Amino acid sequence: MPNTRSPLLVNLRDALADIDTASLRRRRRTTESPCASQVTLNGRQVLAFASNDYLGLANHPQLVEAAAEGARRWGVGAGASHLVSGHSAVHEALEDELARFVGCEAALVFSTGYMANIAIMPALLGRNDEIFGDRLNHASLVDGALLSRATMRRYPHNDMAALADMLNASSARYKLIATDAVFSMDGDIAPLPSLLELAERHDAWLLVDDAHGFGVLGPRGHGSLAEAGLYADRIILMGTLGKAAGVAGAFVAGSRTLIEWLLQKSRSYIFTTAMPPMQAHILLNSLELIENADDRRRHLSALIARFRDGMAPYAERLMPSTTPIQPVVIGDNAATMDIAAALLERDIWTPAIRPPTVPAGSARLRVSLSAAHSLAQVDQLTAALGEQLSALNARVT
Questions:
Q1: 184 carries an active-site annotation
Q2: Which of 73, 114, 171, 260 has the smallest number of CB atoms closer than 10 Å to its CB?
Q3: Is the pTM of this model over 0.85?
């Protein structure tokens, strides 16, 4: 039997108790049905505003059939890393199609977005270099910067003047600007044209994490860079395939020279088993669906407008987001948890997001809209949420 009085375990239990006291304990919820607008949670049907399945493709019949077809054709595992024996013709086809889709020369497929982001910066920069990252960047971008051993500078969120000052003061050998395209907890969009202008002025790389824009923004869902009409050899584009694409995985796209360098130097690509080739087969089908999903994107835009209209009496709690990520800021951790629990009692699931994922004092409900939702479901959410916010405002005043 383990020694439960070990100081190591005692320290962990005490630290967990502190997390509980601050209303910061993270807990998993186990669903019993496929990802959809309504899911089975603990044996009951709930209306879910908790996933990043923005186009409602995660349970699409064409992708389910593609999974079965891919398994029959390719089996269920790659068997090795891409650079040993795990790289198949269907992986190659997916990389070619992703490059075409986002308008780049080449692409490299990764198993997850986190693995992609921790691959890029360590392959390009080192101790004598500097990375400039938005204060609200995703944790994977932060960790990728730390792994590079370059000096990391964090500029205030979307503050181009502050970033310009940092770049002007830099004498680093190589420089890289890193940003989310759509910020995952605020839902707002980075000023990509201004960022590219600064990158060009200071001869810096520009790394754009388009996890939450890919498939949603731009002509035919081609992403945030396409929405902004931007292309440059210095841009490094990372996109994920488990959100709007509905499946899993990620990719990095850019110039052919960049992608070849990453293939040679990215540790999280070189030293891991390749994604199952059946998954690459599914993703080829997903890209076809995304390009022909303008009706879903139009419906999604209508849902966003409907939600914001319904929340107009509480506009001070909304973030300036035009994307499917619609945060409702509560502030206090415990109050946020209480409102999330009250909504779940009414069979509405909205995740409570607290520090350190978001800054202290800005705990929020992260409402995530999907083309799979209906206008009536959004109305159901805003009515229930409005009641909770009215009660909260009454208590505060």
A1: yes
A2: 171
A3: yes
